[in-house]
Amino acid sequence: MTSFLPAAVQPAARELTMTPARRIILLLGVPVSLSLLAWTCFAIISKSSQGNYQVSYAPVHISGGLAMNVYGGDVTLQGGVAPSAAQFTGTGTVWYGLTYSGQRPTLSTAQTATGTKINFTCADYNCALNSAVGVPPKVPVTVTSNGGDITATGLSNATLQTNGGDITATGLSNATLQTGGGNLTVDGLTGNVSLNTDSTPNSPNGAGGDISGTLAAQNATVDSGGNNVDLQLTAPPSNLNITTEGGNVTLQLPGGYSYDVDNIPSPTNDSVGPDNPAAITVPTSAKSPYRVTVNTDGGNVTID
After folding, report:
1. 92 CB contacts (<8 Å, ≥6 apart)?
2. Last residue of a domain, one of 143, 174, 207
3. Between these two residues, 119 and 232, which has the higher pLDDT value?
4. The pLDDT of residue 269
5. Any idea which of 65-79, 158-172, 234-248 has the lowest mean pLDDT?
6. Which residue has the higher pLDDT, 272 or 117?
7. What is the pLDDT of residue 272?
8. Domain end: 143, 174, 200, which one?
9. Which domain holds residue 66?
10. Does 117 fall in a domain?
């Protein structure tokens, strides 16, 4: 049966009332949403537009000592090759994207009473400098790098520090080397030597790099910050002090001498066992002028 009654009238949509709370939500939410969208688009475009270019620097003649501060990049130092004044050459690399301001990395030099200072900085922390320095004999050198590797040969009175990079040192005399977590490789270092790879010195929670190579130093202090130490001494040391904070120690000492060995776990110590033995095969004597002190906090010790 067909009905001729009018269809039910649908109620009209009710207009949304703009309450004060809704106005506040719109006022805050729209700008935040637009900002997030813009930042996402910016990051995608910036990532896809990354590139780099190199900037070369003219040689810098250095008189007196050398103090060098480098934001990033690798440094190579060669001692005993320049007859009178050291010479610096460097090539900087700049990474750029949408954040690149157009400012090239800055290289500044200054002559002081103690020698020449070289400072390399990056305006937007987006560059690095790879450099080489030829140094006259017996010129003191101080280099600080923000994380690049340092390679040094034939220097005297050198202080080299990098924040996480590796250091390779050959034929240095009276040297202080600190990697801040990177590995340290040495060959034929003499005089008074400090080797440190601990990323947080003087802290029990440090993390370091391995220390390895050969030494002929009279006095040496070694700290690996939890990693291993493997050193061969070509001359008996007056004082060798090694701290590993858990890392293993392997020492090869010259034959024909006795050594005053201290702080080595004894076989009766509970911490000594198959997993962390102490093996000492060199002659020992408390009256020996050659003192070796080892602190491993449980790491294995081998001295032969």
Report:
1. 54, 55, 56, 57, 73, 104, 105, 107, 120, 127, 128, 129, 130
2. 143
3. 232
4. 44
5. 65-79
6. 117
7. 42
8. 143
9. 51-143
10. yes
Place of tokens 């102490």: 278
How many domains does one find in the chain? 2
d(CA 253, CA 234): 7
Please, are residues 176 and 160 in contact by the beta-carbon 8 Å criterion? yes
Cβ-based neighbours of 25, under 8 Å, separated by 6 or more: none
